Amino acid sequence: MVIYGVYIVSKSGGLIFNHDHNVPKIEVEKSFNFPLNIKLNYENKKVVVAFGQKDGIHECRMAGTANDYIGTLSTTRSGRTCAKWLDNYNFEQIQRSNVSLKTKSSSRFLRLIRTKSRSKRHLMAKQNLLTSSQLLMKPPSSNLSQSGFKVDKHINFVDQTYLNDSLYPELSVQDANNYCRNPSRNIAGTWCYTTDPLVPQDLCDIRDCEKSEECTFFVKGHGIGRRLYVLPEYRTEGLRFSLKTWEPDHPDSITFVFTADDGLKSRYILKIGALDNEKVLLYYESEERGNLDIILVKKKTLPHLLYLGKWSNFVIRIPRGHVLLYYEGTSNPLFEWKHPESSKAFLPIYYYYNSEEGHAIGVAFDCALRCHIENTQTNRYTRILPLSIWSKEEIVRPNKLMLMIRAKGVVLIPLFLLPATSGFYVLTLGERGQWIYFLKNTYPRVRIYHKGNALKPIFNTNSWTNVTIKWSENTIEVFCNKTNVFYYVHRQPLIFYFFSLAVDPKGWATWSANCLPSDIDGPPLDGGWSEWGPWMCSASCNGGIGTRRRYCNSPEPNVRGEPCTGPSSMTGRCNTILCGDITDDTITLIKKVIAYNHTAFTVKEYASISLPSDSNIVNTIRIESPNSEIQWSHNGIFIQNNHHRLEIKDYEIIINRAVLNDSGVYTLTAHRIDGTYMIIKVITLAVVPIKESITIRETLPMHVTCHCAILGYVYSNLKVYWMINGNVWKDYGVTLPVATNVDYVPTINKSHHGIWKCIVEQTDLKFKWTTNVIHVKGTKYI
C-alpha cells in the first residue's frame, strides 16, 4: 500500500509525527519507505514526505477526501490535462495574497485568471446538499445565452480560497503544480482545473486503497425518506458493510434505523460511534403497550469504532427481537440486545442509515451480494452513489445508468461530476406523467436545456419500468423499456461520475440501480441453498485447512420469504490429493459436467464422425497433473490409433468410416498418479446399419448386445430397454446395465424382424442414450 502524508519535525530533526489525521504515525526518519522527496522547513517546523510509486504499486488514497494524496498524476478521468493551480505570471501577487490568507479568512468569491472571453459568466459559490424545491424555485437566468460563448485561450476559474498553501499536502500551492489535489475537500476525491475551456473541472482517478468505488455509497445528513428493504439473509447471515469517516476534518458517526412494516411505527435506532466515537447505543420504539416513547435499551463503550484513514468492517444481524453487531470475521458479537419476549417483538422490514452531524460517511458493501432496493420519499440528495454502482469491474468513465423504477409523481436524478457543488445537471422524469426535462442547476438559477414527451406515462406504481440513461461526449439519451424516449445534443461535453435520486413532495419511487431487483410483490418465497463452492485452502496438495461457501439462491428468497437455514460456510480439511495430482476443484468440475451434460451420437454406417473431448478439462489436467495419463476407451477397452479408419488427434476421436462395431460407450479416462482411474468424458455412438446386419433362420436362438455396461459405472438409477421398429420389446426397468448388457432370444420369429435399438435413460437428469442398433432379418425354415 502506498502512503502519502504531511508530517511535523522538531527543529533538531528528531521526532516526526503525523500532521494529518488520516495516515499512520511515523516516529523516526529511518521508518520512511521509498521517499521521493523530503523537504524540511525548520523555521515552521514542517516536513513534507512524499511516498511515491514503487514498481507494481498503484496510487491510491487512504483519506476519503484524499487529503493524503501527494502523487504527481496530472490527467483526469476523462483524459484531460490538468492546468496549474497557480499561473506563474501572477505568482508574486498570489504570494502577497497568501500572507493575508494566513491572518484572516478569505472572502468566498471566484477569481478569473487569464481570461479572454466574449461574455461574462456568473458562477455561484459552492452549495451544500440541495432540495429539488430549491432547484426549481426560479426560472432560467436570462444572462446565459442559448448559443454560449467562444474563448481564444483556455480559462481557469480559480476559487481564491484554494490559493491557500495549507490546503495542499506540499504546503505550497506553487509546488502542487498541475497535480491532482483536493483543496475543496470534495467527497469525490482529487480533482483539478483542466486546460479544456469546455470542461473547467474534472475528477482524477485516485481510488480508495481498500474498497472499490463501485461498491461505496456516501451518506451525508439524515436518511429519513430513504428506506431500504431488509433482505431475509440479514436476519441470519447479517447485513455486511464497512464504514469510514470520509472527511478527516469533520469526523462523524453513523446511525442505522430498522423499522416495521407499513402502518406500524416500531423501530430500532442503532448508533455506532456515538459520543466522540466511543459508544454504541440502541434505542427502541415499540407499539407493544401503546407507548411510542423512544427508550435507550442498551449502551456500551467501544472506543475507536470508526477511523479516518481505514475501513471498519461490521455485520448487523436482526432476527425478530434480537439485535447483534459484530466485527466482520468474528463469532462473538461486540454488541447484543435481546427482547425479553422475542415472539412479541416486531420483524424489521425496512432500514435506513444517516450521519449524525451531517458530514459524509463512506459505506461500502460487497458487490457480490444482492443489490439494494430503495424506497425514496424525500427531495433531498442525502445519499450519493457512483454511476458504476454494483459493477464487478472498475469503470473509469461511466457512460450509462440503468434503473428499475416504480414510482408516483416526478422523479429527479441529479448527475454529478463533483457532488455538493453548484452547477450540476438534472434529469426529471414524469413531469405531467410523461415529460422528461434535462436541466442545469446553478443555485438559485435553473436552466432547462431540453424537454421531451415520452408519449405515455413513464412509471407504474405496481410494476417495474426499465429506465436507462446513456451519454457520450455531448449527447444524452433516455430509454424506457428499451424504447428511446429522449434525445438531446448539448453544447458542452457531458461528464458524470455520481448520481442521486429524489422525488417531488407527495411523490415516491422504489428503485434499484444497475441490477435486477428481488421480488417484492409475490407471496413469500423461501430460499434454498446452492451447491458448495470450491475450497479456499491453505495448501494446494497433501492436505490443508480451508473454507468453502454456498449461497441461498436456489431459489433466492424474496423480501417476504424465509432465509436459508444452516451455515453458509464450512471449514475442514481440503486438497488431500497428492502433490502433482488432479485438484479437488477440478474433480468437482468434472463430476458437475458429467452430471449436467451428456453427449449421444447416432450415425449411418460408413459415415464419418468426430467424438470431441472437453478441451478445458483436458488442458486443466495437463497443467495440474502432467504425469497423469489421459486415454480413450471403447466399451471398456483402450483404443489404439488406426490411421486407416480411426485416429485420435488432440484427444479427439476421428472416425473416417464408421462400422457397426463402433457402436457403444466411449470414455475419456485419466490414469491418476495415485494409481486410480477417473472418467472425465462419456460419449455414446450408435451406428445405424444400411442393410440387414443379422440374418438368421426363424426358430433359432439369438444373442443381442446393448453395449451399455460402462454407463452403469458413471450413472446410477438407469432404465434400460430394447425397441423393435419403434415398439418396446423388453423393458428391464431401473437396473444395473451390466446385468442386461447381453440378452438371449430363445426362438426367433416374425415379430423379431426389423430395426432393434437399445436405449438407456436417466429420468432424473433427463438423459437418453442409444448404445446399439441392429437390423435383424429372419428366414423361414426349409
UniProtKB/TrEMBL annotation:
GO BP term, example: vesicle-mediated transport
Judging by the UniProt lineage, the source's domain of life is: Eukaryota
InterPro entries (alphabetical): Ig-like_dom_sf, Ig-like_fold, Kringle, Kringle-like, Kringle_CS, Kringle_sf, Serine_protease_kringle, TRAPPC
Recite the UniProt keywords alphabetically. Answer: Disulfide bond, ER-Golgi transport, Kringle, Transport
A GO cellular component term found in this entry reads: TRAPP complex
User: What are the Kringle domain coordinates in residue numbering?
Assistant: 62-209
One Pfam family, short name: TSP_1
- The protein's name is SCO-spondin
Q: Which organism is it from?
A: Mycetomoellerius zeteki
